[in-house]
# Entry
Amino acid sequence: MSYGKAYTVDDKFIYTYGIEYYLAEHCNLSCKGCSQSSPFAQKKLSSLLEFEFCLDKIEPYLRPDRISFLGGEPLLNPQILDFIKIAKQSKIFNRTFITTNGLLLKKAPSELWQLLDNIEISIYPANYSSINKNISLFLQMAKEHNTELSFSPKNSFNHILFSTQIPKDLVKIVYTKCFYKNYCHTLYNKRFYKCAPSTSSHHYLKHFTSINTSNSEDYIDLENAQDLRSEFITYFESPMPLGVCNFCAGSSGTAFQNEQIQGNQIPTNEFSLNKLDIYE
# Structure
């Protein structure tokens, strides 16, 4: 599935690149620029019942290629194996992934490696030494269980959320260019969202604005949907930016140096044109 289109369709199913699901909203790192706003979120673990509800709702219509469990830090959730088993038993997804900072991975049971198709470890300056120390173990476990292991170095982050609004004439341009809306569809709070920032931006933006950055047009309410197949297609095809797009650089944000937020710091990130790369 290409990033260039949100979906393909046949007579039976709607096929997409994948779905993301947070197992924890909080994290054991505090990365400035976190796209999930985890440093500003309260400690919260996902519910197995809610996850099963969401999968039951989408199963007749959607066939995402993969499900990616992330956070926050997904390994903080003690029920992670149950989530993975439910996802695999649903037969909705071809592949099952997690994205982790790896700090808890050495303590993970071997069953985690057996169940997953891919473990992606994000490497930051803050966890580099720990990953380097344990890399031989990780490679051994991946080989033993035939699990794909990938590393994603992140010495820099890209601007995602701004603490001030993007000028209205730029919002549509940013949204049109944004590829997040096509590949990081997210199940959250019994709703289906186009992208991860639209689910978690409130953790950060509540400190800078009283504007409601999410409205009923920004997601599909899985509890109250009447014709989900049609609603999915209409939603994917909509050219209208989401509410959070007024504060979000999407995939057009320029890079800045990765660092850890100290204490209860809430860093500002005021909008400026040099934080966007929208012109070819």
The chain has one domain: 8-275. The chain is about 30% helix and 20% strand. Residues 16 and 63 are 6 Å apart (CA to CA). The longest helix spans residues 128-145.
